[in-house]
Amino acid sequence: MYILGIETSCDETSIAIVKDGEEIIENLIFSQIETHKIFGGVVPEVASRLHMEVLNKIFKLAMEKSNLSLKDIDLISVTQGPGLVGALWIGITFAKTLAYALKKPLVGVNHLVGHIFANFLRKDPPNFPFISLVVSGGHTEWILVEDYDRYRLLGKTLDDAAGEAFDKVARLLGLGYPGGPAIEKAAEKGRLIFDFPKIKCERELDISFSGLKTSMLYLIKNLQKEGREIPINDLAFSFQYRVIEELLERSFIALNKFQTSTLVLAGGVVANKYLQKRFSEVSKRENIKLFMPPPILCTDNAAMIASAGYYLYNKGKVDGLDLSADPSLEIF
Amino acid sequence: MRILAIDTATKQSSITLWENDKEIWEFLFATSSKDYGETILLNLDMLLRRSNWNLEDIDLYVISKGPGSFTGLRIGMMVIKTLAQVFNKPISAPSYLDVLAYQNKFPGIIFSILPARKNELHLASYRNWKDFQKIEKEEVVSIEEFLKRINILQEEALLVGEIPEEIKMKLPNNVIFTSKSSSFLRGASLAELGFLMFNKGEYFDPLELNPYYGQKSSAEINWEKLHGKKE
Ligand SMILES: Nc1ncnc2c1ncn2[C@@H]1O[C@H](COP(=O)(O)OP(=O)(O)OP(=O)(O)O)[C@@H](O)[C@H]1O
Ligand SMILES: [Mg+2]
Fold first, then answer.
1. Helix axis angle, A162-172 relative to A179-187, nearest 10°?
2. In chain B, where are the structural domains located?
3. Ligand 1: which of A32, A242, A269 to mutate, judged by most atoms within 8 Å of the beta carbon?
4. Is the pTM of this model over 0.80?
């Protein structure tokens, strides 16, 4: 079965062709980051216009590269939300029109579920149940996944998402956008010089980054007041260290609490090499089976949407021509 | 020749199936920025069922390319682009203002108007007495500037479109405006004008067509205010 995946929820336009939910035939990603950079963040109207310009072209390219013809497509899977509403509508309208013209079934997929399914694009996907940590630009959540379509929220960020915190702290340090990769790069040359306080929330599986961000802000201000040089690389490392240790700690609390031995990481922040190193070390020590997608599948892409669509379709999910964008779609 | 024409530029949307000298099926419906995307394919499906037409029989796709609601323009055009891509057919894309002028016969000059941002108008001018002729292409002007222009006109003029009250109140004697029902785009006119354009060789490859917005996004405008124009 060939699944066409479509992703336009934020600033990446992506089309993928995936076979049987696990094998990537094509996964074309057109990033708009260079355009949004000058504004210092994603501008929704600009994002919609760019998706509109390139989506049909990327589709054509994917079909040509795959050597498949339109009638080979068996299922169309598209991101329904969460995301930017105008951007989501581009992908959804394209998907609905295509499904209608080709007379093929259509499935709307939750973008976060998609991120989790980036781990299913392989021969030996995770077994249920597992704990998933989704850490992206918009989300930081611990989820107990009991089946393809059964999700339980265990804890989440009370304010910024981890990726967002990376982006904001990068701005404080003058490191540019997107902040995640910029901080990772600076941190490679840095040391742990500042022990940011541990993050405490009322519920043990919730997290909050606002305190950490404020500490960073005051630290920088004080250094500036004293006329001292800002040790950018060291601050980047210290921040990254704190964030990742906190993510790690909560993930293992969740694994223990629910007696599960599989941990599945998802979302853009998982592209961080230091995060991968720390999670691998601790998982090995604790005998936990750890899944992390390759970096290209951590950030937004359509292959993960195609994979999720395949498994959900097999569970009986199909959508009609009334499928609508839902900018704040929940999975629970 | 069989045509499918879609217009989602304003709150009054339409889908039309049009065959020259034969039959016309037109569905005119009200939309909002929230439900352009939700209703369009359901309505298209309904119209195709009622008419017994098949997508496979469509020879030409027509879309009003703008100006209008940014979201609306994208939804309608995405449907048209994708159908034309799948069935490998051309698209002709008159502007919304073109169609407004085309559907009104008048011996003088015609101004097609659609509100843009605050105190601004999308404007284009035409003649449509013997032949249909475009005089000045789409631009955005302030209401003040537009009033200046029509006050020095030496001939009869017709205004068509969504005309702000402020303008209606200040019109000189040689300028009139159309009735309400002629002042929004009608699907059959869109299809017919698309057909004429196609016959003159004015059509697009589906992959090269994009909406005519006539305006930058507010973020770009603010950016330019702060940093000057991008190249
Ligand atoms: N190497 C990295 N280290 C840390 N963070 C990173 C790295 N690479 C990317 N990120 C962060 O990941 C985020 C982008 O991830 P992703 O594309 O999954 O998020 P999104 O799609 O914007 O949000 P969501 O999926 O929640 O809607 C950005 O905030 C970026 O800074
Ligand atoms: Mg994402």
1. 70
2. 2-95+185-225, 104-182
3. A269
4. yes
